[in-house]
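STRUCTURE REQUEST FORM
Protein name: Cof family hydrolase
Source organism: Oceanivirga miroungae
Requested output: structure tokens
Priority: standard
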Amino acid sequence: MYKLIATDMDGTLVNSKREISQNNIDMIIKAQKEKGVKFVLASGRVEEAMINQAKLLKLDQYGGYILSYNGSRIIECKSNEVIYNKSISRDEIKELLEISNKYDVALVTYIDGLLYYNKEHKYVDEEEKITTFTKHKYETIDDIKVSTVGKCMFIGDVDKLAKLMEYLKGIYKDKFYITLSSPYFLEILNKDVSKGRSLKKLCEILGIDIKDMIACGDSYNDSDMLEVAGLSVAAKNAVQDIKDIADYVSVTNDEGVLADVINKYVI
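Status: completed
Returned output:
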């Protein structure tokens, strides 16, 4: 029996209106209540952009978890305790800022409810909507007063990010974990971080065999959690590379991926 379900948010759990459909809500609560399944929201989002959804799904009541920043941080919903944390240092932010200026793409990070950004782009505005953080323009590393952050993200046009991705993979693959969460979002994390690695850590903490985990996703940053899960699920709307590694291709995110998976494999 599967004991833990981890799901990506955007493009998987939430629909095109950025809402969790009622059939997903009902089945997730049912799986927790009747089968004792642990539920994890595993996303590149900041945790503040998942708290309301976690409460809607009663993760605080049934002992679920939020895995934010693509695995940089894990929060136990019932106690609101951070049980795992891996960060990017201030010196690393400075280095990424120099790359941002060289490749003419925005570099954003997240500090105290603010979305720090150095260049304007329509998808910086989109990230502001997703996170509900207020945009805060910065110019240099001196404008950032903290010593570490959960993640940084380059935002820009597809062609620029593709070139940047190729450059970073060649030079920085051993220094950072680098992943595309969308064609416009190139995420940079601590080298020891990914959704898959962090979920392995959570399973160790909970005493759950990783093969008793279901992982659901739709994009490139979901690949390693699908690869380690006992059952890997791709949304029908997923990129082809994710469909290719999935054990099961479900319905679209507008139809209710989690409801379909829970009904088929859990209930």
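Reviewer notes: The chain has ten helices and 16 strands. The two ends are 10 Å apart (CA to CA).
Form closed.
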